[in-house]
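Dear support,

I submitted the protein below through the web form. The confirmation email said the job was done, but the results page showed an empty box. After a refresh the structure appeared. I'm attaching both so you can tell me whether what I see now is the final result or a partial one.
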Amino acid sequence: MNATAGTIDRPLTHDPQKQAPMSSSASEPNGSATTPAATTIGANVSRQNRNREMQLLQEALARAHMHERMREVNAERQAVRLVAARRMQRRAERVSLRARRALAMAVMH
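What the results page shows now:
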């Protein structure tokens, strides 16, 4: 029985592209007349590998989705900060203009 390092809960690596691909057993060619126990064991191993691969694909999809969501949130935060910075800049320009007018009025009197 060919076992891959790591388990479903704790895989050796989280990158599905670096995982060992699911392969058919070389000792059991397709359509071979093996004993029922060996066939059942091979089917269980194959099913476990397939389930593991599907879970790893789901985990990779969830990570990609969360990464995209975090990118969207960061972009929105940056946009909100930019709007706030522009608002503060306009306010500072108005205060500066008001101060210049007040200084000009004081100098004229």
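Response: this is the final, complete result; the empty box was a page-load delay. The mean pLDDT is 80.
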